[in-house]
Amino acid sequence: MSALEDRLQDPSLLKSQCYVDGKWIEAASDKRFSVDNPSTADIIGECPELDETDTSAAVLAAQRALPDFRSTAPRQRAHLLRRWHDLMLSHTADLALLITSENGKPLADATTEVKYAASFLEWFAEEAARIAGDAMPASSNPSCRIVTMREPVGVCGLITPWNFPAAMITRKVGPALAAGCTVVVKAPAEAPLTALALAELAHRAGIPNGVMNVITAMENTIAVGKVLTTDPIVKKVSFTGSTPVGKLLMQQSASTLKKLSFELGGNAPFIVFEDADLDAAIKGVVACKFRISGQTCVCANRILVHRAVYDKFLSMLVDVVKTFKVGDGLEPSTTHGPLIHGRAVQKCEDHVKDAVAQGARLLIGGERLPLGANYFEMTVLADMKRGMRICQEETFGPIAAVFPFDSEEEAIALANDADVGLAGYFFSKDHSRCWRVAEALEVGIIGVNTGAISDPVAPFGGVKQSGFGREGSKYGIDEYLTTKMVMMAV
């Protein structure tokens, strides 16, 4: 029994095979890849290295399951999702342990993620019974009636990231199953064990064979993605990840004109106006900049602070950052864990060097930590300006880059100076300004006087090169439905 398996209350949740058509399978080639703990670099598991043929088999399993599942009563699908939700909550401790072990985030953050992930199953269980069309008279022929029906789009390919290995799955699978679709989930190679544990709990919840399939690959990730985007059986692809990869998947999907929803990269502005509550603003920065060591797509990437409160804000921020404890996510005293791999550390190092070379002040951090290959100091940079790499690149690391500004117009111009537009934040006590700025920011999600913007009730998604489509909320299920019109003469 492995060390990780020994720590689990239910060791059967630690899976080393893929889940296809209700069975646990190996790759046809018998190839496997290892999964490591970014905190320690220890190998904690292995998963099958599936290829194109294996992926096509999973797609066929989802296709076979579709006719029966799409015809199930909405309440029946709701009950399945609710049982899955309940099983997730009853196994919170084990799921959190898996997340921390393969992702590195502190155990408290992982526990919060499990509950957040389960909430999407609860939300979409309740939405399943609310799928409805319309009936209306024809505009020119009084003897005709028009009826619309909302139907499941079909087999869905879902490609999920490593930073939220539980929540990004349930946020996609929940609405897909509620709508009556079947799915093939490509789990992230960096953190596949959580996805496989969720598949086991879905199986225990009674979700029929072939309805939910979870596959893994590392070296073959591109090939697997190409199958999901080009196979005509797959009618919809949902992807969360980087903008460059999203562009590639969109190009591939054009060959079969799939329905798409993409949640891509961000470069979130965080604006602190001169009338802001600075204590609340600091709390907001901590929540949305340093959470998971800066590895979320909605992390504040550019912190814009009015010059009237600039020095005070910087002093307060540095004082808070000094209290952070970086270390192994499984250690109770750890507030912030490692980055996911060495490439992420290198990007942080490059961003700091670039900023300092162009005149930024390094107030704290900025170096690798001797704890291991994946650790980087919590960092604050001051006197940032346009032209630095952080302005146009998503850092995805624990660097708070602070820019001064002098007017509301300047802040909005700086905030919108990016090709992407996922999230944005600002702090102000002026209600008129709050509406003006909220309307002016070119992003899909805005936090006003808060750094916490994630909720199953809230629609999540971006504009510009941050993608399209929405996840969560009452709008999230629309991504997995099509509308059919029936014109009937009476």
Proportion in helices: 25-40%
List low-confidence stretches: none
The biggest beta sheet is recorded as: 7 strands, mixed
Tally of helical runs: 15
The name CATH uses for the topology of the largest domain is: Aldehyde Dehydrogenase, Chain A, domain 1
| CATH homologous superfamily title of the largest domain | Aldehyde Dehydrogenase, Chain A, domain 1
Radius of gyration: 23 Å
Number of domains: 2
Just give the CATH class of the largest domain.
Answer: Alpha Beta
- Taking strands numbered 1, 2, ... along the chain, how are they ordered across the largest sheet? 14-15-16-13-12-18-19
Average of per-residue pLDDT values: 97
Note the beta-strand portion: 15-25%
What's the CATH architecture of the largest domain?
Answer: 3-Layer(aba) Sandwich
- Morphology call: globular
Quick synopsis:
With 490 residues, the chain is α/β, with parallel strands linked by helices.
SSE diagram, text form:
Elements: H1 3-7, E1 18-20, E2 23-25, E3 32-36, E4 43-48, H2 52-70, H3 74-90, H4 92-103, H5 107-127, E5 135-137, E6 144-152, E7 155-159, H6 167-179, E8 182-186, H7 193-204, E9 212-215, H8 221-230, E10 234-240, H9 243-253, E11 259-263, E12 268-272, H10 278-289, E13 300-306, H11 310-321, H12 342-357, E14 361-364, E15 379-382, H13 389-392, E16 399-405, H14 408-416, E17 420-421, E18 423-427, H15 431-440, E19 445-448, E20 463-464, E21 467-468, E22 481-489
Parallel strand pairs: 7-8, 7-10, 8-9, 10-11, 12-13, 12-18, 13-16, 15-16, 18-19
Antiparallel strand pairs: 1-2, 3-4, 5-6, 6-22, 11-21, 14-15, 17-20
Helix pairs in contact: 2-8, 3-5, 3-6, 3-7, 4-5, 4-7, 5-6, 8-9, 10-11
